[in-house]
Amino acid sequence: MKFTAAQIAGILEGEVIGDPLVEVYKLAKIEEGVAGSLTFLSNPKYENYIYSTQASITIVNHSFDPKSDVNTTLIKVQDAYGAFTRLLEVYNEVKRNKSGIEQFTIISDNVSYGENLYLGSFSYIGVNVVIGDNVKIYPNCYVGDNVHIGNNVTLFAGAKVYSETVIGNHCVIHSGAIIGADGFGFTPTEDGTYKAVPQIGNVIIEDHVDIGSCTTIDRATLGSTIIRRGVKLDNQIQIAHNVEIGENTAIAAQTGVAGSTKIGKNCIIGGQVGIVGHLIIGNNVRIQAQSGIGKNIKDDEVLQGSPAFHLPDYNKSYVHFKNLTKIASDIDELKKSANQINK
């Protein structure tokens, strides 16, 4: 699909400097721009590329004043980065504008769905499932019995949603994610083996939640595992049974949260963080990558280390740790000097 500079400027409420009829059909970084591509310039460090780029159209800030001739048509806007982000959203909307039910799908009894459903091939929808408007379920997805999916939800190829799960509006679940698998509940027996404890709860995902590829969110033993509104989960995260994650918290890849831990609002948790079970983590907490959390955390704390402790203390301690060999050598020299004095 092609768009002219005039059409793009209309979407962005921008001003065209150059040829309003020039067309583009793809997006590119400014240093890799070729004929037919659209790019943007917002960071002054990249300004030199605008004089050599072959991109047909470049979005720039209103304040941009070229120091020499440019070959690209400019679209001037208030915020070039924000405008380009908006175009990416439009591009995704167009690219993902699928609808209809493809062949080789299974829709079980008593399923209801709203307008503009897309259901890809080899997907399975269980009994008593309720699906809202503008939902896209890509090929090879599984949706178990009694699942409720809100409006404007996307399940990418291969996502698995177990029974009883509730998904709100405007959510995205990426390929390979598993929502509602059994929690890790086992009890030891007298003969040294383990017996599974039935996990009869569910998972509740509120509105505007994004869940990355191969992330697993376990169902509760009793009650619900809850992912609150606006949460963003990266790829390859493990969320255990009965965990609750507060609104607008973001968690990076390979983090594991053990059972029944409660995480507050507006937290940012780095990659490869390990959090033990039955903890309470406050609001606005920042946890640096590869930290280990073994105790409750108050609001607004910033931590690092394993076990984690206050970031300023960690940084001071780490300076000493890097110099540990020298410090030990200095102590040995002091001991030798002290022994000589004592003689």
From TrEMBL:
Its EC number is 2.3.1.191. GO terms for molecular function: N-acyltransferase activity; UDP-3-O-[(3R)-3-hydroxyacyl]-glucosamine N-acyltransferase activity. InterPro entries: Hexapep, LpxD, Trimer_LpxA-like_sf, UDP_GlcNAc_AcTrfase_non-rep. CDD domains: LbH_LpxD (cd03352). This is UDP-3-O-acylglucosamine N-acyltransferase. Belongs to the transferase hexapeptide repeat family. LpxD subfamily. Homotrimer. Keywords: Acyltransferase, Lipid A biosynthesis, Lipid biosynthesis, Lipid metabolism, Repeat, Transferase. The keyword Calcium does not apply.
